[in-house]
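Review form for a predicted model. The reviewer records the input and the model, then writes brief findings.
Reviewer: anonymous (R2)
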Amino acid sequence: MLIAQLAATVFLPEVSVAASVTVNDRELSQQQIEALAGDYGIQVVPGDYWYDRKTGAWGNKCGPGRGILLPDLELGGVLKADASCGNTGVFVNGRELHRQDLVNLQLLAGHIAPGRYWMDAQLNAGREGGPALVNYQVLAVQQTMGADTQHGGGNAGGADHFWSTGYSAGNSSADGSYGYVSVPGYGPVGYGY
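Model under review:
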């Protein structure tokens, strides 16, 4: 659910160029707008946006996340704490989360205490300065598998096939036709979906 919501965009499927696009309070050049339109095959809608270079997440200024681009793009200025006009007390990569962003993360992980956190493009996350405590992609896969009655996976129609070693972890459906493997430093990889 979170992945689907993060992947939703306001971009239209045809290639076009916008008049004025501001990212993190810095206007993009026409060349940058044309590159985005060409690279992603989209129409870039004029407006004010925020972009998190560490995760690739983006949204309308004063709004929740609307989609995911590649991380580390040289777009706009520095991500500011008030980019989403959040009032949650939960900061991720310096941005105070919009209420909807916090609700989406809590649907996967449960209560998230106010504080400062980091997240990377593989959706590993932890407290600022600390190690990864959770991987939201893994939680989303686990949640999906736990509710998957069509394939007989997770807890709904068959046994839970979670496994873990000192180096990696994973889970699969009862017949092994789909699941995921997660290796630290490389992130989770799903198969059979």
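Findings: The chain is about 20% helix and 25% strand.
Further findings: The chain has two domains: 2-127, 136-191.
Recommendation: see findings above.
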